[in-house]
Specification:
The protein has a single domain, classed as Orthogonal Bundle (Arc Repressor Mutant, subunit A). Helices cover about 75% and strands about 5% of the residues. A hairpin with an 8-residue loop joins strand 2 and strand 3.
Length: about 160
């Protein structure tokens, strides 16, 4: 089997399966959070959030009080993306905003926001444990080779 055939059968197809599973995982994360948060209003609010919004909420809890400029730096995202997601988090009651002027706004998590992040952290710990068990099977050199290959693949598309 030549290298291209090997790639197509042993790398490309599993990568496609992983990407499809990862797309479903975004829904899995929200469903997991909803399962472990009994409040129906909060479950509905969480169902309205993207994975990015959930990650931003984690940053707010970790850095609070935090400005949008600090979130832009911490998340390496544009101001527009941060502002849009922070407005949604504020509207749904996960964070409170201290100033009406967008660039000067400082955010604090609400009790509901903190509760959602605590449940997120439980899920993260579970996933970290699974990932640690997976990578334990490989040497650091093998992991570096895999990472390099994936970066090369990413940049060639």
């Amino acid at each position: 089997m030549d290298k291209l055939d090997f790639f197509k059968h042993h790398i490309e197809n599993p990568l496609i399966d992983i990407m499809n599973t990862r797309a479903q995982d975004n829904n899995f994360e929200r469903q997991w959070l909803q399962l472990y948060i009994p409040n129906r209003d909060l479950q509905y609010a969480i169902s309205q959030l993207s994975t990015l919004s959930l990650k931003l909420l984690q940053q707010v809890v970790a850095l609070a009080p935090v400005s949008e400029d600090q979130l832009v730096e911490a998340m390496d995202l544009s101001f527009g993306v941060i502002a849009k997601n922070m407005n949604k988090l504020s509207r749904l009651g996960f964070v409170s905003k201290s100033a009406p002027e967008q660039r000067k706004a400082v955010y604090q998590p609400t009790k509901i926001g903190i509760k959602a992040v605590n449940v997120q952290n439980q899920l993260s710990e579970l996933l970290d444990k699974q990932h640690a068990e997976l990578v334990e099977r490989y040497t650091p050199e093998q992991l570096q080779l895999i990472a390099t290959f994936l970066q090369d693949l990413k940049h060639s598309h």
